[in-house]
Each structure stands twice: as C-alpha cells, then as structure tokens.
C-alpha cells in the first residue's frame, strides 16, 4: 500500500473551532482526544506523486471515437474542458448514415466522458459502474469488431511495484470484443509484456490503492446526480464508508470471522479423527503387547481348558438337578390331576342323575297329556257340531221373524187404505184438490228456503274443515319441531353433563366409562394380559395447533377419535372382554383398530397434499405417538385432507380447474366437507372432543339449553292454542253438520209430502170388500208364521243349552291339558340346562384325561432324559479327570469359557502366523502413535490459534471503531471549515448503529436561520455543498488520483470560483496526488501555475476520425480570449 501523505490546505482565517454540539452529537467516547487535525499555514513543499498516478491514456474504436489520444496528464491538477455531447436515449447519429444502438452509450461531440469511462473500464471496472451502459460490448464503436484502451501508470520511487520488472511506468492495455469479453496486457516501461492475468492487475491496483469503483476516486456525472438527488441517508453513509475504505475493512473482518468458523469445523473434524486414530493406536499397541505375552497366553489357555472340563460337569449336574426337580413337580401334578378327574367324574354322575330325573317327570306329563288328547278332540268336535246346529236354528227363526214383520206391515197398509176409501166416499173432490195444490206450493217454497240454508251451512262446514285441516297441519309441524328441539335439548344436556364431568377428568369427554376402562387396561397390562398396552382413545392422544380447526378435524375423523389401537388380535380379544364390563349389550362400543405397532411414523412426503396457505389434518395436529399417527394415516389418509377455514375459499380451492396436488377433500372451520365436485354441510355446530376452552363451551351450552327450553315452552304454548282452536272449530263443525243433517231430513220430508200429494188419484170407486178379503187372508198367514216362530224359538233355546254344556266340558278338559303344559315348560328349560351341564362335565372330564395323558407322556420323557443325563455325567467326569485329575471350582459358564478359549487360541495362532514379522508390527505401532500425536498437536495448535485470533479480532475491532471515530471527526471538521469559506454553516450527523448520515446546510450566518436539508437548497448551493462534502472525503481518503466530472455544472459564478479555489488549494497542499477535473467551462480565469494543466478538446468536424487533443498553457488561453 502507498504510504499516506497528507497536509492541510486551510488558511488561518478560515480555520474555525468545531461547534461543541457537533462533537457531542458525533460520539460520546473519551477517545476523541486521540483524533486530531493539524492546520498548518503556508504552501506545501511536498514533491509530486511517484506511484499510481495516470501519465497517459489512449483510445481506439471506443464509443464514438475511432482514435482518441495519446495524451498526457500532469502530475497534480488537470482540467479536461470541452463542449458536452449527446447521451443515450436520443435516436441521433454519431456519423452520417449510422444509427446509434439502443443499448449503447454514445458521446457525439466531445470526448470528456469517453476519457472518464475508458479510465474506469481500462482499470478493470464493470460497465455498470460507468453509468454509460450495462455491457462492455456497448462501448465498441458501431461498425467495428473491437475496442482498445491503453493507460500508463507511474511506477517510481521506493513504493514502486516490482520496479525491477516494470520500470518507471506500467502500461495497462485492455482489448474489448464485440461479444463483451475483454483481455489484458500488462507491459513494462519498455513495452515488454509482463503478464496477461487480471490477478496481476488487481495486485497492482491494490498496491497503488487505486479504487475505480470508489466514488471518491472517480465520481461520474450520473453518480453525482444520484448522490445530489438521493433522499436516503443510508446511501450517504455507504458513500462515506466506501470512500474511506471502512467498508472494505468491515468485509475483511467478516471474512476473517467466517474463516474462524471454518477452522472450528476443522478442529471438530480433527477431534473426531483423533478418536479413530486413538482406537487404531490402541489396537496396534494391543497387538504389540500380545506378541510380548505369547507364553503367558499359552499358560492361560491350558488353565482355561482345565476349567472348561469341570465347567461341563457342573452344567450337566445343574441340568440333572433341574430334571429331578421337574420330575418331582410333575409327579405332584399327576396326583392333582387324578384327584381332579375323580371330582369331575362325581360331578358328571350328579349331572346325569339330575337329567334323568327331569326327563322322567317330563315323560310322565307327556303320557298324561297324550291320554287326555282323544277326549279333548272329541269334545272339541261336539262343540263345533252344537254351534253349527244352534246357528242353523237361529237363521230359521230370524227368517220367520222377518216374514212376520212384513205381513204385519202389509196388514196395516190394507187397513189404512180401507179407512181412507170409506171416508172419501161421500166428499166432494174439488175442494180437496185445491187444498192439495195450495199445500204443494207452500211445500215447494219451503224446500227452496231449506236449500238456501243448506248451501250457507255447507259453506260454513267447508270453512271450518279448511281451518281445522290448516290447524292440524300447523299442529303436526309444531309437534315435529318440538320433537326435534327436544332431541337437540337432550343431546345438549348430555353433552353439557359430559363437559362438566370432563372438567375434572378430560377422558370423560370420550365416554363416561372411559376412565374406568383405561384403569382396567392398565391393570390387565400389569398382569401381562397384553403383548403391548392398547393405545386410546385416539382423540386423547392428539393436540390441535389451531383451536379454530377443532370442528373441522372432528368432522373429518368422526368415530376414530373414540377408537383404540391393538398390536394383534389376541390383544383385541382381551380389550373386547374388558369393554363388555362397561358397555351394555347392544350399546355402541368404540372401534378397535388392529395393526402392528411401529415406533416410527410413516414417511408420507411423496403422497401428502400441499398448499402454501392451508395445512393438512396431519400438519395441523401434534401427535407424539407414532402408532396414533400411522393409524389415522391408514384409516383416514389425513395427509391428503386440507383444512380451509372459509367456506367460500374452500369451494374456490377445491372446485378450481387445478385443485392442490394429492388433495382428495377439504374441511372448513364449520365442519363442512368439500370435494372437487360436491359439498356436504356438517350436522354439528360445535366440537365435542377437541375443544380446549371447556368453561366457554359449558357457558355456551348452558345458554343454548336455556334457549331450547324457552323454545320448547313457546312451542308448547303454541300447540295448546292450536289444540283449543281445533277443538272449538270441530264443535262448530259438528253443530253445522247436525244442522245440515236436520235440513236434509226436513227437505226429504217436504219432498215426500209433495210426491204423496201429487200421486193422490181422483176419487174412484174401489172394491172395499176385495181389500177386506185380502186383509183377512193376511191375518191368517200371520198366525201361521207366529206359531212357527214359537216352535223354532223353543228348538233354538234347547240347542243353545246343549252348546253351552258341550263348551263347558271342552273348557274343563282343555284347562287340565294347559295345566299339564304349564308344568312341562319349566321342566323343559331345566332339562336343557341339565343337558348342557352334562355336556360341560363330559368336556371337563375329557379335558383332564387329555391333560393327564399329555402330562404322563412328558413325565416319562423327562425320566428317560434323566437316565441319559446320568450316563453323560459319568462320561464327562471321566474325561475331566483325565484332563485335570483334581476337581476345581469354576465360576464361569462353559459357553463363556469356550468363547475365551477360541479367542485366545485365535490370538495365539495369529501371533504364530505373524511371529516372523515382529518388526513390522512394531513399525506399524510406532507410525500409528506418531500420526496420533501429530494430529493431536495440530488440533491443539489450531485451538491456540483460534483463541489468539479471537483476542486479536477483539482488539482490531476496537481499533476499527476508534479509527472510524477519527475519520468521522476529521470529515466533519473539514466539511465545516470548507463551508465557512462561503459563509455557510453545516452539520453532519453520523449514526453508525443505523448506518445513516444526515447532512444539513444553511447558506448565510448560522445563527439567523435553522439548518436545512440539502434537498432544500438551490442547484448551485447544493453543488457547492456537495463539493465541500467530496473535498472533506478527499482529505481523509487514500487514493493516488481523484477524478471529478462536471463538478461546477449547477454553480453560479461566485460558488464556482470559491469551489475552484478550494480545489486548487487542496491540490497545492496535496502535490503527491493527481486531480483530474472534467468541465464544460473554458477555465480561462485560472491562475498561471506549473502544477495546472488544461486539456482542451475541440469540437470534431463531421467525418473526422481523430479529435485534436493537446495541452493549452495559461498564456495561450488568455491570448485567445
């Protein structure tokens, strides 16, 4: 890095003490005393820069220029002046007949911006940093295939970069192709190519501290505009951090911390490797020690063989003792089985005797019943015959009675007719006819009046009938509604009771017997009746992530919430038996799921439904037990069911053209079920099992129960009113119908009278004697029929008494038969029970016989085994005495000794096999030990390095903060002093925590007006303030050259002159730096100085391929003007 060379350019008159409030606002640390700025009077006597400044630049086919340069810059101040050109966005032409490309930035007339752009691109900057294009290919002149940039950098003095290779200058040449690619050539002062690698160029730039992307080093016109117009205080802070290279330091520290973390990972990996190396080292050491102890191992092998011989004898003796014990236990059990068989035989004999006694009683009753059967049948047939004879006699009597009544009626009519004929014989016929006509007229008028009354009453009847029918329909509807409300009330009251019980025991939500059932399950599991303890109810094993989805999940899982899981069918049968104790016969029981228990939940990621906004039932539940989760996945596919709270959103999601992948159905928060083409509403309004807020549920249910009771009371009052209306209307209807009936009877009577009057014939002679003869004959017939009736009645009474007598006899015999049947029915039930008892006792006897036979077979087998073991013991003891004559006590089993013998024998064989390569084993052990110790030393070294790095970084970060405070204070002091030269007041507030920088400037005296944001200033004032800010950054930033494009474009003449003086004073105080200033002004008013060089670019002529570019002295400029 180039050494810092800096001096102050402020005059004593302009040097002001910083305001106390700014220092306090800036930072409250006591370390500010370490950050000081010296103000030195007089002109600087520093020498010109020796490294990093730009000596010359040359362009070919770059932007609109076929050839620009070569030209040389001065070592201190350089003004590049000329007219402005036209930029991108205008469909203008660079040359006649050539159109500008849309993605190409073009400078039509002057070459100032081309020089600045080439400087940025030529030293490795990106195209976007120039604000003239987004791609390098846009800088190639239209119609050409490539562009070239050549920049010469000074490389002298003690800080020169590889002076022995490059000499006093470094030439950087860049070639840009049409495809946007570029290549480099780095040449020495003599033109020799030293390198073509970009890394070499980066090393040179780092050595000279050149940052082409640093806005303080190179500030383009567009970047200056963006900075002036920026409203973001964070952008100004980033500008400051980048200009002072604090940002680079911060990134370096971050990289170091990342490196530290990676080193920690290496340490962890090394420690894991150490464990493995230690294990290998111990194995090698063990092998080494085994070689040394080979003789000891052989001695141990012989001793183990002796122990093995007597260990076998010990085990056989233990087996013999166990067999003897088993035989004794078996003989005792055989005796018990014999006693059981005898007891079973006694019970069987008693059961058979009881069966025989009952059977004898039934046989006796059956014989008596069979004996009475013929008599019963005969009496039954006699009753039937008597009934038939009585009925026939009754028919004959009724027929004679009807004939007698008809004859009596004829007699009355004949007598009446004779009387009429006798009375009318002497009367005149005319008065009678008139009277009949008068009566007929009156009767017809009465008939009409009755018809009108009948019509009115009929309408009233119809109205009452309609009213009654309507009230009855309403009554039926209200009754049905009352029944539904009562069902709901009963359900709510039961649910309310369950909820109140669940406050003390949550399990009672799943049924009143669930807590007792679970205790029974626990007890049965402790007694070993279950292979695995059943899991359930499933609803008690799951928890909701979102309580609002409780009803949706209950609607989805339904009865599974009360279900239980068993590992196998044997466990299921035990659980069924337990449930029978708590659930009544015929009552609904919880479902039992039989599935082998697994400790790991299914991996359903490949077949599960997914939606970015809505969960599935599986993801909405917290399930700790894998058995529960797997059961719900198997039976309900909960991984494919979505939960969508809104009904409308659920319809939109499921019934769209592309429903969610793998999603079969969805449930809403109201419990509704939604398919791709169907929608089913839920019949439940609230959750029953999964609700968390029990008190709220109880309160809601109590309110609903009260509402239902009030609703039932209202309905009952309504029903009572309807019943009264129906009763009243029915009474009215009955009265109307009775009235209507009376009217009809009156009408029929009138019509009958009319007909009789109309049918009376005129008086005619009648043979009264003939009618009297006919009447006499009729009376004779009546006497004959009456006598026949008396005879038939006597016969009917006689037959009736015979029928009653037969029925009494039949009833008596039938009563006896029924009494016998009543005695036989309980005996039949007792016979069935006795028969079942006999079968049970027979099965019990067979069971004990089979067990006895099986047990005796096993006992005999064990006795044979005892004989064989005794012989084997004799053989093993003989073999053991041959191996080791004296018996020794052995603590280990034969199997353990056998494993130790085999392992020791293998070790001995392995050592014998490797005995000739003893040196190789020693070498392997030494290498493993050295590898372990070397890695252990490296890990410890890295740990020390990490500890030291943490200490260094803590110190470096404190130094970084102190350095940042120093730069911030210096920047504020420089800025305040620069503004004071124009009688401006300013303030810079740094907020390092939030990374913001606030600049406030007030033209004129500071005590007359408040500070304003820079955006409130005029264009010239803002440009002047920006120049002050940039000069402040120049004073604290490190870079061999500074480039500033059109720094005075928005200034008036006064501010431009003041800014120019400040820049020249800074340049004079910093002769070790190079300043390149681009401006459209003529710069004719500049003072004459050897340190100032003006590079004027004349307006090119049309078709001109090269722009005249030459230095202009101060005298030439004055003579020309």
From TrEMBL:
It comes from the Eukaryota. PANTHER family: STRUCTURAL MAINTENANCE OF CHROMOSOMES 5,6 SMC5, SMC6, STRUCTURAL MAINTENANCE OF CHROMOSOMES PROTEIN 6. GO terms for molecular function: ATP binding; damaged DNA binding; single-stranded DNA binding. One of its GO terms (cellular component) is Smc5-Smc6 complex. Belongs to the SMC family. SMC6 subfamily. It comes from Pteropus alecto (Black flying fox). It is found in: Chromosome, Telomere; Nucleus speckle; Nucleus, PML body. InterPro entries: P-loop_NTPase. Residues 1-31, 834-863 are annotated as: Disordered. Its main location: nucleus. Residues 260-287, 313-481 form a coiled coil. This is Structural maintenance of chromosomes protein 6. Forms a heterodimer with SMC5. Component of the SMC5-SMC6 complex which consists at least of SMC5, SMC6, NSMCE2, NSMCE1, NSMCE4A or EID3 and NSMCE3. Interacts with NSMCE1. Interacts with NSMCE2. Interacts with SLF1. Interacts with SLF2. Interacts with RAD18. Interacts with SIMC1. Residues 1-21, 839-863 have a biased composition (Basic and acidic residues). Keywords: ATP-binding, Chromosome, Coiled coil, DNA damage, DNA recombination, DNA repair, Isopeptide bond, Nucleotide-binding, Nucleus, Phosphoprotein, Telomere, Ubl conjugation. One of its GO terms (biological process) is double-strand break repair via homologous recombination. The keyword Lipid metabolism does not apply. Residues 22-31 have a biased composition (Acidic residues).
């Amino acid at each position: 890095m180039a050494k810092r060379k800096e001096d102050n350019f402020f005059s004593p008159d302009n040097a002001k003490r910083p305001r106390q409030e700014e220092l306090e606002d800036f930072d409250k640390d006591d370390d500010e005393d370490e950050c000081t700025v010296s103000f030195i009077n007089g002109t600087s006597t520093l020498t010109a820069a020796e490294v990093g400044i730009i000596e010359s630049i040359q362009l070919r086919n770059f932007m609109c220029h076929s050839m620009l340069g070569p030209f040389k810059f001065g070592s201190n101040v350089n003004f590049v002046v000329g007219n402005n050109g036209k930029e991108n966005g205008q469909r203008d032409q660079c040359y006649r007949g050539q159109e500008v490309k849309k993605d190409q930035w073009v400078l039509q007339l002057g070459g100032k911006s081309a020089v600045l752009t080439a400087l940025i691109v030529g030293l490795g900057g990106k195209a976007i940093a120039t604000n003239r294009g987004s791609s390098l290919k846009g800088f190639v002149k239209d119609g050409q295939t490539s562009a070239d940039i050549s920049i010469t950098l000074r490389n002298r003095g003690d800080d020169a970069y590889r002076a022995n290779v490059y000499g006093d200058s470094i030439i950087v040449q860049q070639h840009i192709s049409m495809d946007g690619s570029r290549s480099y050539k780095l040449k020495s002062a003599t033109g020799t190519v030293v390198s073509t690698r970009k890394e070499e160029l980066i090393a040179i730039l780092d050595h000279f501290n050149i940052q082409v992307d640093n806005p303080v080093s190179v500030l383009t016109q567009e970047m200056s505009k963006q900075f002036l117009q920026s409203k973001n205080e964070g952008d100004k802070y980033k500008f400051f951090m980048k200009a002072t290279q604090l940002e680079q330091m911060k990134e370096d520290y971050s990289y170091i911390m990342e490196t530290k973390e990676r080193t920690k990972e290496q340490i962890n990996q090394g420690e894991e490797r150490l464990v493995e190396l230690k294990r290998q080292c111990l194995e090698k050491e063990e092998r080494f020690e085994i070689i040394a102890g080979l003789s000891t191992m052989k001695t141990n092998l012989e001793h183990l063989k002796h122990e093995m011989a007597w260990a076998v004898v010990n085990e056989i003796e233990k087996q013999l003792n166990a067999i003897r014990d088993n035989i004794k236990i078996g003989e005792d059990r055989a005796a018990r089985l014999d006693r059981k068989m005898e007891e079973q035989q006694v019970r069987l004999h008693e059961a058979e005797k009881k069966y025989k006694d009952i059977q004898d009683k039934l046989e006796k009753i059956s014989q008596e019943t069979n004996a009475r059967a013929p008599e019963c049948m005969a009496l039954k047939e006699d009753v039937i015959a008597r009934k038939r004879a009585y009925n026939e006699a009754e028919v004959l009597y009724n027929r004679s009675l009807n004939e007698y009544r008809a004859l009596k009626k004829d007699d009355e009519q004949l007598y009446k007719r004779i009387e009429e004929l006798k009375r009318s014989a002497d009367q005149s016929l005319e008065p009678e006819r008139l009277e009949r006509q008068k009566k007929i007229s009156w009767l017809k008028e009465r008939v009409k009046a009755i018809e009108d009354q009948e019509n009115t009453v009929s309408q009233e009847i119809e109205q009452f009938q309609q009213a009654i029918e309507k009230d009855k329909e309403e009554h039926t509807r209200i009754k049905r509604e009352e029944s539904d409300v009562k069902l709901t009330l009963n359900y709510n009251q039961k649910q309310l009771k369950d909820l109140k019980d669940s406050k003390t025991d949550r399990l009672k939500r799943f049924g009143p017997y669930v807590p007792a059932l679970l205790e029974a399950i626990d007890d049965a599991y402790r007694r070993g009746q279950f292979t695995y303890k059943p899991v359930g109810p499933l609803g008690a094993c799951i928890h909701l992530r979102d309580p609002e989805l409780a009803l949706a999940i209950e609607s989805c899982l339904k009865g599974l919430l009360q279900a239980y899981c068993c590992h196998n069918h044997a466990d299921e049968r035990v659980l069924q038996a337990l449930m029978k104790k708590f659930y009544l016969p015929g009552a609904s029981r919880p479902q039992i799921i039989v599935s082998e228990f697994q400790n790991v939940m299914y991996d359903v990621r490949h077949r599960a439904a997914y939606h970015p906004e809505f969960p599935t039932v599986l993801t909405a539940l917290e399930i700790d037990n894998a058995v529960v989760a797997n059961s719900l996945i198997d039976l309900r596919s909960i991984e494919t069911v979505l939960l969508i709270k809104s009904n409308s959103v659920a319809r939109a999601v499921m019934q769209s053209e592309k429903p969610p992948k793998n999603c079969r159905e969805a449930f809403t928060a109201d419990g509704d079920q939604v398919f791709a083409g169907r929608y089913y509403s839920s019949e439940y309004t609230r959750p029953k099992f999964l609700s968390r807020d029990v008190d709220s549920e109880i309160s809601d249910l109590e309110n609903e129960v009260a509402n239902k009771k009030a609703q039932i009371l209202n309905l009952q009052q309504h029903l009572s009113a309807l019943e009264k209306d129906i009763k009243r209307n029915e009474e009215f209807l009955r009265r109307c119908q009775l009235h209507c009936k009376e009217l009809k009877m009156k009408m029929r009577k009138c019509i009958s009278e009319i007909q009789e009057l109309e049918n009376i014939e005129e008086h005619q002679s009648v043979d009264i004697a003939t009618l009297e003869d006919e009447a006499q004959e009729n009376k004779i017939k009546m006497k004959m029929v009456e006598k026949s009736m008396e005879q038939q009645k006597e016969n009917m009474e006689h037959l009736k008494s015979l029928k009653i007598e037969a029925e009494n006899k039949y009833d008596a015999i039938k009563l006896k038969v029924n009494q016998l049947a009543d005695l036989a029915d309980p005996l039949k039930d007792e016979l069935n029970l006795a028969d079942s008892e006999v079968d049970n006792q027979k099965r019990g006897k067979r069971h004990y016989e089979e067990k006895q036979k099986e047990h005796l077979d096993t006992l005999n087998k064990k006795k044979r085994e005892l004989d064989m073991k005794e012989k084997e013991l004799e053989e093993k003891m003989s073999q053991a005495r041959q191996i080791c004559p004296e018996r020794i006590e052995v603590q280990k089993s034969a199997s353990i000794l056998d494993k130790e013998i085999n392992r020791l024998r293998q070790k001995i064989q392995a050592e014998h096999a490797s005995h000739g390569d003893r040196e190789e084993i020693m070498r392997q052990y030494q290498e493993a030990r050295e590898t372990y110790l070397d890695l252990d030393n490296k890990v410890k070294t890295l740990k020390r390095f990490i500890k030291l790095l943490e200490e260094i970084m803590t110190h470096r970060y404190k130094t970084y903060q102190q350095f940042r405070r120093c730069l911030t204070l210096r920047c504020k002091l420089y800025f305040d002093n620069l503004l004071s030269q124009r009688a401006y007041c300013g303030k810079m507030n740094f907020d390092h925590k939030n990374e913001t920088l606030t600049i406030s400037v007030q033209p004129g005296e500071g005590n007359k007006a408040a500070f304003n944001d820079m955006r409130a200033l005029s264009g010239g004032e803002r440009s002047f303030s920006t120049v002050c800010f940039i000069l402040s950054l120049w004073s604290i930033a490190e870079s061999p050259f500074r480039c500033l494009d059109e720094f005075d474009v928005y200034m008036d003449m006064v501010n431009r002159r003041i800014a120019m003086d400040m820049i020249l004073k800074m340049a004079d105080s910093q002769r070790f730096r190079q300043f390149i200033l681009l401006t459209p002004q003529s710069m004719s008013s500049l003072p004459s100085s050897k340190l100032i060089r003006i590079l004027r670019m004349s307006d090119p002529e049309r078709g001109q391929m090269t722009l005249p570019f030459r230095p202009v002295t101060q005298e030439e400029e004055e003579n020309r003007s």
